[in-house]
Every structure is written in C-alpha cells, then in structure tokens.
Specification:
The chain is α/β, with parallel strands linked by helices. It has one domain (2-133): Phosphoglycerate mutase-like (Rossmann fold, 3-Layer(aba) Sandwich), CATH 3.40.50. It is built from 5 helices and 6 strands; from the N terminus they run H-E-H-E-H-E-H-E-H-E-E. Strands 2-1-3 form a 3-stranded parallel β-sheet. The chain has a 3-stranded mixed β-sheet with strand order 4-6-5. Strand 1 (14-17), helix 2 and strand 2 (39-42) form a beta-alpha-beta unit. The longest helix is centred in the N-terminal third of the chain and has 13 residues, at 21-33. The model has no long low-confidence stretch (mean pLDDT 92).
Length: 139
C-alpha cells in the first residue's frame, strides 16, 4: 500500500497512527515505501475507537497538513469513512460497505478550511483500494 501511495501521488503530509503494535508496524512499512516521510502522531484515542473519537484526533491534525492518513482499526475506520463520504464513486462505496480489510485505503476528498470542519457527508469518496486489488494479501 505504501508503494501505491507513492505511485499515485497520495503520500500524506501528516499521519495519525494508533498506538497498537500492528498499526505501528503498518506505519513503518508505509514509511519505507515513500521518499518523503510525513509527520506522524501516535494517538491512543484511535485505538479500537468509535468514529467520534477518530474525528476528535483528526481535528487536532496540523492545519498545514492538506493531506492526512489515519492508520487505525475497524469497525471504527470503516464506519467513519462511510459517514464522511457523502458523495463519490458508487463502485468504491459498494466495496467499502462490503468489507474494509486490513491495509485497505479509502481516499476521501474534502473542500474544508481545516480538519475541525469535518462533518457527516462532507467528503467525496474518490477511491477505495484493497491490498488484494493491487496484488497484495489481505485478511
């Protein structure tokens, strides 16, 4: 997935990563695949968190970060992605509804002044990528 981010110009400016060992390992692998490593905040608020808790962590992201990556856990991430994506690709939404596998990536665009302005339906789901779709393994 890190290679996918790099190859599709999706490398974030900032990442919020759960404090679990597995998400830290995922972050390390992602970081190895990109040339410029984003700033990162390891945040215990997103460990097995509900969407509202993840939103609270996102609201604290630096204003200077125009792109953000959240590395966390389900079912919170899947629920949050579905909640935020008010429009966008129907095919991607269908796939997102079916399963958000380990290593999955929901790309959601927002036209907002900063991360604190996120609200239900405020984003556009551009794509939903699974590791299997790009030649990897998934749980």
């Amino acid at each position: 997935m890190g290679r996918y981010l790099a190859e599709h110009d999706l490398v974030p400016h900032h990442a919020i990563v759960s404090t679990s060992e597995r998400t830290r390992q995922t972050w390390q692998l992602l970081g190895e695949a990109v040339t410029e490593r984003p700033s990162v905040a390891f945040d215990e608020r997103i460990y097995e968190a509900a969407p509202a808790d993840i939103l609270a962590a996102i609201a604290d992201a630096p204003k200077s970060a125009s792109t953000l990556l959240v590395v966390g856990h389900n079912p919170g991430l899947q629920s949050l992605a579905l909640m935020l994506a008010g429009s966008g690709s129907g095919k991607a939404r269908k796939a997102l509804l079916e399963k958000y596998p380990t290593g999955g990536l929901a790309v959601i665009d927002f036209a907002l002044p900063d991360w604190r302005a996120l609200s239900p339906g405020s984003g556009r789901l551009e794509r939903f990528i699974t590791p299997r779709a790009i030649g990897g393994d998934e749980d």
